[in-house]
Amino acid sequence: MHGKVTSHDVARAAGVSRATVSYVLNGRSGQSISETTRQRVLAAAAKLGYAPSTAARTLRRGQSDLVLMLLPPEPLGRALAMVLDAASDQVERYGLRLIAHRLPASGGAVDLVRSLAPAALILTTPLAAEELAALRSLEVPLASLQQEMDDPLGPDLGIGALQVGHLAAAGHTRLGVAVPDLPGYAWRVQVRLAAIEHACARLGLHPPAVERIRLEAGDAAAAVARWTQGPEPVTAACAFDDDYAFALLSGLASHGLSAPADLAVIGAEDLPLAGLAVPPLTTVSVHARMLGTLFAQLAIAPLLGADADSSTEHVRTPDAAPAAQPVPPVTLVQRASA
Amino acid sequence: MHGKVTSHDVARAAGVSRATVSYVLNGRSGQSISETTRQRVLAAAAKLGYAPSTAARTLRRGQSDLVLMLLPPEPLGRALAMVLDAASDQVERYGLRLIAHRLPASGGAVDLVRSLAPAALILTTPLAAEELAALRSLEVPLASLQQEMDDPLGPDLGIGALQVGHLAAAGHTRLGVAVPDLPGYAWRVQVRLAAIEHACARLGLHPPAVERIRLEAGDAAAAVARWTQGPEPVTAACAFDDDYAFALLSGLASHGLSAPADLAVIGAEDLPLAGLAVPPLTTVSVHARMLGTLFAQLAIAPLLGADADSSTEHVRTPDAAPAAQPVPPVTLVQRASA
DNA sequence: CACCGTCACTTACACGTGTAAGTAAAGTGT
DNA sequence: ACACTTTACTTACACGTGTAAGTGACGGTG
To answer: Which residues contact B45 (CB under 8 A, 6 or more apart)?
Structure first.
């Protein structure tokens, strides 16, 4: 009952051959097993606490039952944490398991995937083009924020467009943008800025005034000062994050100003804290759980399609219908700050 | 260069036997290999892009090079995300890999560990006693927040004691505590409350007045009202989290009160936002990165000790000295709110 | 009674790796 | 010149699993 329990042990305990055990536990269709021995095997397996070795099973099948989620090198934000959560739930409905690995900045994703042989891959962080190409050539089903999301909503999920749209509808024409200047966030910042600039151009607004700040009152205050002074002041600002929106509110307060009168502020992510700010923060809510479910679905879909093939029929169909909902993954949450 | 590259392919390309490539790549000490063939093998492996199959290697060794970190069912907070980050860094210095798996509420940790055969285990979430016992009997090196941290600092890392100590030093004798009422946080809440109650008793304060609230302005305002009204009002409050501290500040504001005059408020976690609150939040900083490093070290240590044994000598010694620092993992950050 | 199909299994092999044991040639000591 | 160590490999096996192919026994049909 302790150390290692193999199917051989189960077979001996049940008084049958090892193959029989395998047939019983995997419910192979082509084979017929009498009900009595089937029960005997099941009982023996349960009693011994048998858990098949993923290593051996993976070696045999050429593919494991793990879905690998690659995380960005920077620490996870709340949104990504919930994506992980939801994806994990979804993946388990198919009898698979989700594991996450933080990708070091040095790369090495390809080797990991080669050696782990996961059933599917979920990318939540951008990769070098050649690394991505190498991954694709590995024939592992792959869902990527970088790529798959390119078409439907743009790689920033439409956050930038929603922010700009709301501010423009309120009559603002000169916008500011506050983003982190940390290297780890470079790609996401670039994507967001592109989306915001595109939206401004489409709506006929002036090009946005970008400020790269640290998450400190001083930095935020300086940015606010640069925006609000001068002949043609910025009247509204998009924050990269609710965190940065908080920083802007704090910066305003340190000048004796406040939102939305002196500067409208809109955040992104809808943190639990957003409603507690003074004034309550208008923000863009990211339905992270839904995104996670969607990602998992995208990654697993090819495995289901190949159900007819002999290679990957170990993927269970789920109990309840999962059906990725067509709800937009981001929505505006209007409060008082913009 | 595409699909699967096995050591057999490398051997053929280098014109040697498969065993030779294994000896070369694993740098076995007992064997002697001529420098010329060694280079030939290395070149062939690099050219073909060979990555050894973890499955086969794990099967052979009986133990994989993965360190498994089990995450709680609830979404990760910032602190835990940074623990993951740091642990991942530390583990990779030893040539191992860290993967994280979100533990479903239903359990099933034992089966996962049995089948994955990880080199070590890091628990960041409590398990049922019997499940923990089963894990321990698996002989996998295990570092657990639940257990290992019991002695040095108590399972709440000393956060509660630090909070109470600071408030007591400022002359407060009647304290309130604000904690979440979400079921997912039940264990952590219980641990924190125990620590706070213990600290209050030790310092001769009155037993704390506990309020279980949701992260909403209304709930927080009600809690503040119950504390501040009455014949013997609470004058200071410990929040479970900086999030809950923000909620308390918001609750105070909605009554026209403010910290620390009407109610001193102390948080925990030192979010980036903490310094941006009005007033800036006094809080307990958790050195999450250091904790992560420490955990990883704790988990890996048994593998290093067994270096003399033949079982697990594939763990590399790190390039730089890692040396878990004896710095306390939590420190007080005094700002204005308490 | 011979024949055939179905049932309920068992035997045998492959997956890719690490490593103990074997082997042939070259070097070394007396 | 012969034994004996050292060098530089190769051959062979085991890890635990999934599954194709094989094997009796049994039941039914001609």
So the answer is: B10, B21, B25
pLDDT at A116 over 60: yes
Residues 6+ apart with CB under 8 A from A259: A248, A249, A252, A265, A279, A336, A337, A338
Lowest mean pLDDT among A79-93, A169-183, A313-327, B292-306: A313-327
Chain B residue whose CA is closest to A88: B102
Q: Which domain holds residue B315?
A: 66-146+289-322
Instruction: Look at the block and give the residue holding tokens 């890999």.
Output: B97
CB B276 within 8 A of CB B266: no
- Within B138-237, residue ranges assigned H as helices are 159-169, 186-203, 217-228
The token pair that represents A275 in the structure block: 């409603």
Is B177 part of a structural domain of the chain?
yes
What is the pTM assigned to this prediction?
Answer: 0.85
Give the residue among B199, B182, B181, B187 at the shortest CA–CA distance from B236: B199
Distance A2 CA to C8 C1' (A): 32
Which among B117, B247, B278 is the nearest to A55, CB-wise?
B117
Which of B60, B123, B45, B37 is CA-nearest to residue B312?
Answer: B60
User: CATH code at B131?
Assistant: 3.40.50.2300
Asked whether residue B195 falls in the same domain as residue B234, the answer is yes
Q: What is the DSSP letter of B331?
A: E
Question: Nearest Cβ partner of B273 from A52, A81, A243?
Answer: A243
Q: How far apart are CA A92 and CA A316, in angstroms?
A: 9
Q: Identify whether A1 is part of a domain.
A: no
Q: Residue A109 CA to chain centroid, in angstroms?
A: 17
The answer on B239 and B318 residing in a single domain is no
B332 occurs within a structural domain: no
Within-domain flag for B46: yes
What is the number of domains present in chain B? 3
Among B50, B54, B111, most A C-beta atoms within 10 A, so best to mutate, is B54
Cβ density class A208-217: b for 16+ within 10 Å, e for less? bbbbebebee
